[in-house]
Design a protein that fits this description.
about 70% helix; mainly alpha; f41 fragment of flagellin, N-terminal domain; about 270 residues; two-stranded antiparallel sheet
Length: about 270
């Protein structure tokens, strides 16, 4: 049937061409952004899931960074305590020598002076050791971890450090007499054990934080893979679709032109 008022075939061809052009534009958008989902209209459910996964990834990534900071602080404390152990070992030597007896007053005074210096250095280490501007010894902080849905904390508290905290004699001259030196040697040995226990606790916490980082990293990898499969475009598939839509657009334009040409045939009947 030939009609000059309406051309159904032209309308059909135009609609098909419009749909093809829309699909082609979507292909170009996906290739330019690398994303399959660029708006809620593309895949509302998929976008919601992808955004949730991104939040989980962000939380886990920061949690890993938090743990890394905690490890750095604890390692700083451990390094300082290693130096304290060296100082205490020297104190053991001094106290053992002073406890032997037979020393002159000058020798006893020299031993006490060095011991006092050791205590002062331990006090100094306890006061001045810091990590990122925050005092290390005597801290009572904790490492916060979260994946955006659940959270927890790991304590990274470090005991205070000073000669007094270690139980050493902080007044008088304990190494000036044999009895005093023998009593102080017992206190020094206890202090050595205390420092060793503190370093053991620090080491265990470092291992815990390191393990937590490993878990966080694995989770980030898995969640990123899941988010990629939902959010990212399959380039090969999109290119194939774009090629198909390019062909359809060309054939659609040809069909629309042919449909419009049919209208011209009506004029030939009037000639």
């Amino acid at each position: 049937m030939l009609s000059i008022l309406n051309s159904v075939t032209s309308l059909q061809a135009e609609n098909a061409l419009s749909n093809t052009t829309t699909a082609l534009n979507k292909n170009l958008e996906q290739l330019s952004t690398g994303l399959r989902i660029n708006s809620g209209s593309d895949d509302a459910a998929g976008l919601s899931i992808a955004n949730g996964l991104q939040a989980n990834i962000a939380g886990l990534t920061q949690s890993s960074n938090n743990a890394s900071d905690g490890v750095g602080m604890l390692q700083t404390a451990d390094g300082a305590l290693s130096q304290v152990t060296t100082l205490l070992n020297r104190a053991v030597t001094l106290a053992t020598e002073a406890a032997n007896g037979g020393l002159s007053s000058t020798q006893s005074t020299a031993l006490q002076t060095e011991y006092t210096s050791i205590q002062a250095e331990i006090d100094n280490i306890g006061k001045t050791t810091d990590f990122n501007g925050t005092a290390v010894f005597g801290s009572s902080g904790s490492i916060f971890e979260s994946d955006g849905t659940t959270s927890g904390t790991i304590s990274d508290a470090v005991s205070a450090l000073s000669s007094k905290d270690l139980g050493l004699t902080t007044s008088g001259s304990p190494l000036s007499t044999t009895a005093g030196a023998q009593a102080e040697l017992t206190l020094i040995d206890t202090a050595v054990n205390t420092v060793a226990e503190d370093r053991g606790t620090i080491g265990a916490t470092v291992n815990q934080l390191t393990a937590s980082q490993t878990v966080d990293s694995a989770a980030v990898t898995n969640l990123t893979s899941a988010e990629d499969s939902i959010q990212n475009a399959d380039v090969g598939q999109v290119v194939a679709q774009m090629t198909q839509n390019n062909v359809l657009e060309q054939t659609g334009m040809a069909a629309l032109s042919q449909s419009n040409q049919m209208q011209q045939n009506v004029l030939k009947l009037l000639q």
